[in-house]
Amino acid sequence: MLSSPLSVHLEVTDSCNNLCSHCYGSSWIRPGSKTKPEIIDVARKIIENDLFDVTITGGEPLLIGIERLSKIFQLFNNHDIRFTLNTNGRLLNKETCQSLKQYELGNVLISLHSWVDALHDEIVNIPNAATETKAGIKNALEAGLSVTVNQVIDNRNIDTMYSSSKELENIGVHLLSFTRALSPLDVDYHIEMVDAVRFLDEFIRCKEKLNIPVVSLLPIPFCADSRVKDLKGKLRCSGGISTAVVSCYGDVRFCPHDTQVWGNVFQEDLESIWKQIVRWRNGISAPSECVTCSFVADCGGGCRVASKLCFNDYRAKDPWARNTVTNYRRKVIFDEFDPDSLYILLSDIRWRKENEYFLLHYKNGNLLVNFDGVKFLESLPQKFIPNELLSANSKNREMQFEYLKILYNSGLLVKAMNSWE
Q: Is the pTM of the predicted complex or chain greater than 0.90?
């Protein structure tokens, strides 16, 4: 169990200038029900923990103004916490985008649910919203920001999923993400969930035909379709495992889509709240039907909130799940580690203490190592050839070679394409 989350979704406001029926904010936002603290004070509370990343979201975070956001950005920069921004893009004018670039924003995720203006406007329930969001995307790209565009997919926009994505690729978007639409919890209406096979038809079409990365932001159970297990970049739920959510009131939840509050950072520390969440989350780690499934280690049984929504039980099967699979053996294939090749060590490795170990955090994942492992990692040059680095008479040579293989297989070491890289 981690001592605290690795990353947090910080909901900096409960206000929004869109009215999306699928928005999970409809579950937790209760306007006027509480006294709202200064958002910078909420941010100060969460940095008391050794976080690596924060996703700044809302509501619509740009509604609090770039001046207030910039104070949060500076706070995170001062504590070596990377941050990204989720927005509907309508307020991304040129000046705002330049400010975001100045504060080294890691990525901006912008929601555009269809390139067809009338359809996007229908989904967000605001006239002319698509025009403003498209302008925001273009402003962000022109400012040199890394831009992801997310489409929440329901039965209204499934037919424009590929054509919209092609248009976004053409204007230079860096990454595309998709989310199957779920009804918010505790609301008096229902959004029909798109069929899994239909979603995957379009999702795989985008992955195969577009020249930019394509991902899903909600976990997909492997048994939903025989093609899922072969997809690259698969995602399992991290809520209550490595991530948590903190609202603008300081309330802590395990998932942005969930409603249950486990504590408030102004009343107890995040570490204590996190321990409660993890204990509960371990109890719903996967549905009982999935325990014997060959896929469960990879997909975790899918989305727990989707199960709660459809069956009123976090332990129920994901509504996209099908039959348990027991005859599949996962193949993990690594390129052979060649001690005579040139390797490059990732430059963006951070770590924190976890009991008697250190947790390495990097772009492609996390790795637990001991103190000697950290010291050896610190001694490595950014580029090296293992056989030249570790001479025949090096102390602990074989052990260090094995460690280098682990680093390589974990994605911390990358084999250079050419010897002069």
A: yes
